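Hi team, as promised in this morning's meeting, here are the two structures we talked about. I've kept the exact order from the run log so nobody has to guess. The first one is mostly here for context; it's the second one we should focus on when we meet again. Sequence first, then the predicted structure tokens.
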Amino acid sequence: MAIPQAILLMHCPDQKGLVAAVTQYLFSRQANIIDLDQHVDTESQQFFMRVAWEINGLLEEEKQIARDFETKIAARFNMKFQLHITDRPQRMAVFVSKLSHCLYDLIQRYMSKEWKVEIPLIISNHDNLKPIADRFDIPYLKYEINPENKLMQEDAILNRLEEEEIDFIVLARYMQILSPKMVSRYPNKIINIHHSFLPAFIGARPYHQAFERGVKVIGATSHYVTEDLDAGPIIAQDVEHITHKD
């Protein structure tokens, strides 16, 4: 059985002693560091680091570790950080509409244990994909959404997500624009895959936009959802060359 790990992501203004302070802190807790990456963005003078360590023998809960690090290190260096513990799978909610290919791909990766996640529920504004959820014994909840009830329905969705202790959300061709309230409840925890090479061709019908512009490269972009449409931080991108024959 794999030993649980703690993963610390941090950034702050660059200054001397950052790596030493963090590693000495972990050493003082008898932590065994197994991975460390660091980088300084010289243009913004920001320091970034990701460090992972085994937490075998460290019995504190995640929040206790975070509070201790905040007091002893983060406050000292004006540091922003996130701490993740890998002792349990992340709970992923999947939002869908009518198209099934993205949902099938996510479920396949979940069932094969390629990803260390659980899918406690699938949320949709249509009934179309319920048979798929039933086949894999995943709860499927339908919330019909229109301009008049959108905010009320999103409140109901948020309540259910909280009940299920959802860690993050994946939009698998969910053809709805989330409200600012919805986005603010899960900052940098809502992932969308947009079928264009952002920032080109945001919004609906990106393939049609690309065709009209006569581009020779198309792509797809995975990004975090923000209040600005298709403008959140980019996670990954890929492209494909095309011709007039495609």
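And here is the second protein, the one for discussion:
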Amino acid sequence: MATTEDQSFITNQSIFTKYQTAAEICNRAMEAVIAGCIDGAKVIDLCKLGDKTIEEEAKKVYSNKKSIKKGIAFPTCVSPDRIICHVSPLDGEPDSELTLKTGDIVRIELASHVDGYIAHSAHTLKIGATKENPASGREGDVIEAAHQSCEAILRLLRNGKKSYEITDTVQKLTEEYECIPIEGMISHAVHQDNMEGEKTIMLNPTYDQRRQVPEVTLEEGDAYVIDVLITTSDGKLKPHSGRTTVYKKNVETNYQLKLKASKNVYTEICNKFGNMGFSLRAMDDSNKTKLGITECQAHRLVNGYPMLETKEDEFVAHYMFTALMMPSGPTRITKDFYDASLVKADHEIKDEEINNLLKTPVKKSNKKKNKKKKQAETKQ
């Protein structure tokens, strides 16, 4: 069984409500950024829009309870074309000039929290796609493969399921589209103030990960952020040349910093962001931060989220969702913004086992309970 703390959203309605509230904030921010993804839009403006929306929506909830912290759990990242993830530029830097154009495949990622309970989401779209001119060919394949992978995983978030069953299912599903999950990416169980719980799910583990990372059993009371990155290439990414701007405090490391600038930066990180992800853009003085963050990262007081890129003429789709494992089945709390009318894949799923899984209801049926209830009423 999961621990009492992990089951708390099942037994404690207020915690479940905080998860749901965080998800509502996350959904509104995602909706705003998606609407802003048009030809000519600047990436930095969209990142600021997402962060501002989270902050403004967070101010509206639990406003009479000052002790409850809420806001950004992971900064808005808008990653276009070959740059796959973690693009959240700083003003005045080269990446701040990144502009979306018609035909770009764009990946959006952001997260919010209420009292440390996290809702994390990612979405992929093609700029300018319409019902008459959808994302098609290999672009359509990879987007649909990623979306269907999410649908399959959601149905496998069941009490007693094994993590590597999810791994094998997604690999089998993506093969139907001649695609593959990005190598080494990890989905985590989440807890209050903890974005990276011990339980993990990997969709395409490396050889070493297969040997070193134990299989886990999913349980009611688990909360997961499912991270799905699917590619048309060989599953490998390489670092992008741009500056890393997204970080998170490493709670497992202690070190006495030497530089005053570094000490000031780390103090601000602890006080302002706690255990949540942040962009250097959100620091009080981003220029001074550039110096201080270097020593912090060198001694692993913070973890950086570098920008990664794929090969030329290859495509990657990114979706994330947050789900709570309830007794009645998994509850997806972040919204699915996928629009099937804007995607036309060349391939389709022909595997009978995968198709049957996708037809499975997400929630347990209440028919048996209702039948027993009617039988009992008849006997009275």
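Starting points for discussion:
Confidence is low (pLDDT under 50) at residues 3-7.
The first strand starts at residue 70 and ends at 80.
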